[in-house]
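Lab notebook, bench 4. Still working through the backlog of constructs that have no structural model yet. Next entry is a single chain of 148 residues. Request: give me the structure tokens for it.
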Amino acid sequence: MKTGIIILSGVPVSEHLAITLAAASIGFVAAVFFCIGNALNTPEKILLQSTPRWDFSEPVARALTAQRAQYVIGALLLVASFLLQVAAALASSTTPVALPQWLYTWPYLVLAVLLPTGLIASGLSALLYKTTIHKVLRLKKERKQKRN
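Model written out:
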């Protein structure tokens, strides 16, 4: 007998909620793979990738470092997004949320999330870039010293 409702942990769940949770779960796995692939691009690997046959290319190293920083922060935000989707799917659709009055219109709510998230993510990306490029340039110097 098909009822359209399944049970997860003793709580009746609609088909909509089950599909939403499945989508968020699959998206979370995708984010994990995205994180692993880019986080494994270490400063040592960036050094190797940015060194052509003849010599080290600092512009290539800086570009790879910036790409790594952006991918890592983006991946973390993607993971957070999927976790929020799961939380939203589990939240009550009838219980009102306690927000300041000015956040009750969707554009203000979106901006209240986007602006701080963008600023924090940009700062973290810049910090990750600076620490990674510093390590890449240090590794380049160490490698050059070993060759001499």
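Notes after review: The longest helix spans residues 106-147. The CA atoms of residues 14 and 88 lie 14 Å apart. Flag for follow-up if needed.
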